[in-house]
Structure formats: C-alpha cells, structure tokens
Amino acid sequence: MTEIWQLYDETGKPRAGQGASKEEVFSQGLLHAAAHVWIWRDSPDGKEVLLQKRAANKRTWANLLDISAAGHIDLGETPLAAAIRETQEEIGHTAEPQEFSLIKVWRMNTKTDSEAIENEFQYLYIYQLPKGAELVHDAAEVALLVWKSLDDFADQVLTSGQGYVPHTADYYKTVIAALRAA
Prior knowledge:
The protein has one domain: Alpha-Beta Complex (Nucleoside Triphosphate Pyrophosphohydrolase). Helices cover 23% and strands 40% of the residues. It contains 4 helices and 9 strands; from the N terminus they run ββαββββαβββαα. It has helices spanning 22-28, 79-91, 150-158, 169-181, and strands at 4-8, 14-21, 32-43, 46-54, 65-66, 69-72, 100-111, 117-128, 142-149. Strands 3, 4, 5, 6, 7, 8 and 9 form a 7-stranded mixed beta sheet that branches. Strand 7 and strand 8 (117-128) form a beta hairpin. Helix 3 (150-158) runs antiparallel to helix 4. It is globular and about 45 Å long. It starts with a strand and ends with a helix.
C-alpha cells in the first residue's frame, strides 16, 4: 500500500484533501510535514535523551543517530496524531496527546544524502518517558535505541556532528534548550 503524505501551503496550513506519495514528494520537493519526537528521562546523572540509530535499509541517513521517533504526516492526519503514531510504530510506546509538548515548528528545505528533496515543516515535540516504560524498536525502521546524557549529546551534535543526521546547529540548539528547560 502506498503511503500518501499530507501536502501543506507556505503558511503551514494543510492543503485540504491534497496528498502525494513519498516518491512524488521527494522527487518534486513538494511541501509536506513531519513530526519529530525527542524523548527524554531523568537519570541519577541528569537528563538523558533517547536516540535511534536509523536502520541500514532507510532511504535517507541510514545508520546514523537521529530523533527518538519521527515520521511524515499522512493525508488528513494532524502533526500530534503523527507524533503519537510514530512513537508507537518505531519504539513500541503508547503515549497520550497531553504528554507531548510542541516546542517549535521548524521550516526546512534541503537535499538528503540520497538526493531526496526534504521540503517540509517539522513539528518538534518533547516527551518525558515515564519511569519503568519499556521500549521495543521496529527493526525495519530502527537498528538500535541509545540513551545519551543530554550534555554528551549536546557536545557531540554541536561540535563534530559525526554519526548523527545533519540537522542544522540551530535546530539542535532549539531541541537542547527545550530539553534543558523541561
């Protein structure tokens, strides 16, 4: 079954009833949206952030560390519903809508490592994982789940960025500031 992603206008509003396939979106640079869920927890040593290592078969940014859970918004779906769905699909955790905090809507337009055109609004959410919650990743999407201290994560993505999906420094600074304030 072909996924159909919701298309958006330049003001950030969904185009009613208008969607396109992944291939159309990536090849034509059609404006769409994605939900990014940054999951954190408290540990004895301070805050930690959950990262996923993208599966080797992913079209873009394979084998790199990235957002805890993320995905494109399906036709007729809201960004929050996509955040909840992707969290369940990718890491096996069900969360309630009120547990997510929207920190920013980021506008991005770039070519990926596979020459796909990512022209999208990114809805950035943070979510605190409850104590004792168990995570089970979808091996087709996620090779590995890794907890990193927030300080180590910040240092790595803001210095070399090696091994991570190359979001911009401002993107990472926005996420880090929100996680520190949470």
